[in-house]
Amino acid sequence: MTPEFIIVSPQERPHIAYVQLNRPKELNALNLQLMQELRDALQLLDADDNVRCIVLGGNEKAFAAGADIKQMAGRSAIDMYNVDQFTIWDGIKKVRTPIIAAVSGFALGGGCELAMLCDMIVASESAKFGQPEIKIGVMPGAGGTQRLTRAVGKALAMEMVLTGKFISATEALQAGLINRIAPVELYLEEAFRLAAEVAKQSPLAVKMAKESVLRAFDSTLEEGLHFERKNFYLLFASEDQKEGMKAFMEKREPVFTGK
Ligand code: CO8
């Protein structure tokens, strides 16, 4: 079935897929259907050998202004429990292909959390990041208190989460939340440029490296080092390792096949 709230282009560029959040009138507010469509699309792209990197974007005014407040407003705690929307987020977290968020305008609440669930963030000069849930009587629920704190540290995370203050792209770059800033008319192109840098590497090595970096947040140093070492050894079973090292010695560019 064609998704209603996202647009999927599996081969926007060679080996790069583009997924666009597409509820512009609601500033891409993340309702349940949008999140289900996004999870399904990302999982399909993840299973596609031709896709080596995914760019996830919105539009110039908004990446996403958060969870859909109108959809949530009347819900009880038991409704929230039964809907269990975070299993959808868990499904996105399992995607092995790197995802780059291309953020312009608002990335608020669940929108900021979705950007942080991605592996890298390229922002336009107009981007605004925030966790304003406190202003509507709740708090972040999709990782905001955890991923934001790990990215920017306690002082700024506390201020953003307790006051709902937005930060600019420049502040987000200084704080370590994002990777790059580009002018509004170029930020998407910049995200594709970064995606191309990833897509030209061995897809196997990229997936295992992503998995290993993420493990740094979920484990002790010792466990993380052990996990990294196993993946490092495992890559010596790949043709890409042979090709990559041979190409280096032959002073030519490697041709990676993902095998
Ligand atoms: N949910 C539903 N509708 C929204 C949302 C939203 N989060 N954000 C904007 N909209 C709608 C507005 O209601 C408006 O619709 P309408 O024209 O029908 O009234 C339309 O989008 C345009 O918005 P505005 O007129 O308000 O545009 P402005 O440029 O004046 O303001 C703002 C832009 C500042 C972004 C403002 O819209 C705003 O404050 N939005 C809400 C931001 C917010 O509080 N986000 C956090 C939501 S809670 C959350 O994300 C919890 C996450 C944890 C669970 C994740 C599960 C998915």
Automatic annotation (TrEMBL):
<dbReference type="InterPro" id="IPR029045">
    <property type="entry name" value="ClpP/crotonase-like_dom_sf"/>
</dbReference>
<dbReference type="InterPro" id="IPR018376">
    <property type="entry name" value="Enoyl-CoA_hyd/isom_CS"/>
</dbReference>
<keyword id="KW-0456">Lyase</keyword>
<comment type="similarity">
    <text>Belongs to the enoyl-CoA hydratase/isomerase family.</text>
</comment>
<dbReference type="InterPro" id="IPR001753">
    <property type="entry name" value="Enoyl-CoA_hydra/iso"/>
</dbReference>
<dbReference type="InterPro" id="IPR014748">
    <property type="entry name" value="Enoyl-CoA_hydra_C"/>
</dbReference>
<dbReference type="Pfam" id="PF00378">
    <property type="entry name" value="ECH_1"/>
</dbReference>
<protein>
    <submittedName>
        <fullName>Enoyl-CoA hydratase-related protein</fullName>
    </submittedName>
</protein>
